[in-house]
Amino acid sequence: MNEVLQVKNLNYKALFKDLNLTIYENTINLITGSNNCGKTTFIKILSGLIDTEKSVFYQKKDISKLKSKELATTFSQVIFTNNFNFHFLNLDQEILFYLDKTDLSVSEKKMKYRHLVKLFDLEIFLYEDINRLDYYTKIKILVLLATISSPKILFLDNVLDNLEEKEGLEIINTLKKIGGMTVIISSS
């Protein structure tokens, strides 16, 4: 397995002291711990949202030295705070909005649209009022939207916390089916 992220001697405030960690390509990883132990901070450090020069490396490159475009195309993160901030009233429009931000051709966008909607089992919700959908369906939508850009690494912070075990496993199994990315999940 290839190393995708390395943490070397990370020191950050009182949370982390000389932390070392290696995360491998195309794996699903869980960061767990009690509330306020630093999980969200750690996700932000790993994804480059908090700068810790010479501590976190993506494919042996210091992420603090990566250009913002490279960070944006490599990482996708959902840091969930129990607020759903969708741009549009229905899922169809929401997906099209995110697809328009990609460099995919029109035919590739159509294929990706159909593939993800089917994979996440959201076909019947495409034209429903997105704000009236149940909590689990909205979480699936957040995860689907985060995968549209085909990130190399997907960070999901607090996304699975309030789901039933079965629902969380369904999302993880869907991510396995998508493949081609490393997933890092934080959860209490």
Précis, in short:
By secondary structure, the chain is α/β, with parallel strands linked by helices. It is 35% helix and 24% strand.
**Helix/strand structural class:** alpha/beta
Let me know the number of strands.
8
| Multimeric organization | single chain
- How many whole angstroms does the radius of gyration measure? 17 Å
Unreliable stretches, pLDDT < 50, 5 or more residues?
Answer: none
Discrete helix count: 6
Quick one: biggest sheet? 4 strands, antiparallel
Percent strand equals 15-25%
Tell me the series of helices and strands, N- to C-terminal. Answer: EEEHEEHEHHHEHE
**Ends apart, CA distance between termini:** 28 Å
Sequence of strands across the biggest β-sheet: 2-1-4-5
> Tell me, what's the shape?
globular
State the helical fraction: 25-40%
Provide the residue-averaged pLDDT.
95
Give me the secondary-structure topology.
Layout: E1 3-12, E2 16-24, E3 28-32, H1 39-46, E4 56-58, E5 61-62, H2 68-74, E6 75-79, H3 91-100, H4 106-119, H5 135-147, E7 153-157, H6 165-178, E8 182-187
Parallel strand pairs: 3-8, 6-7, 7-8
Antiparallel strand pairs: 1-2, 1-4, 4-5
